[in-house]
Amino acid sequence: MIREVITYPNPILRKKSRDVEFFDQKLHTILDDMNHTMQEYGGVGLAAIQIAIDLNVLIINIPVDHEGDENDGKQLNKNLIEAINPVITHKDGELVFSEGCLSIPGFTADVTRAEHIIVEYYNRFGEKKVMEAYDFLAIAWQHEMEHLNGHVFIENLSFLKRKKFEKEWKKKLKENNKNRN
Ligand code: CO
Predict the structure, then answer these.
(1) Which pTM was predicted?
(2) Which of 110, 148, 149, 178 sees the fewest Cβ atoms within 10 Å?
(3) pLDDT tens, 148-179?
(4) Distance, CA 127 to ligand 1 centroid (Å)?
(5) How far apart are CA 115 and CA 108, in angstroms?
């Protein structure tokens, strides 16, 4: 089922998520819904809190074009990461990347993050996994894990850039409301 992605400044996005205890059908439904929702909205990552579920669950799907492979739905699915209760155990390096977020649609900004991470997590069956990630994948992990901590990527902006964003965002929300009436 496709769920609604909640957007900034909805206070739910500030909620800190809690660990999953049961790797049951309910969790599988949440993950399936997150997948469908992310595909519908066209994102590369989604945290459960973005569909108003305060559990430490995230998904990442970065399409990889292997030469000669057909880029069909199966290909996309092959790269899907489903992570429960993730913990970053190692970080190093630095990388600036222009990020966006389904909860702040239409806005991108440069954010500095670690370029290399090691993360431990559980899959949907409760099996422990370890992943080493670099570059864009490492950034996606850090972006989604920030959501689980109740934060969004614009909180990393400098004071002035954040102020500018808030002004533009307020204007955009006002215009959206006007169009709705
Ligand atoms: Co996001």
Answers:
(1) 0.91
(2) 178
(3) 999 999 999 999 999 999 999 999 999 988 88
(4) 25
(5) 19
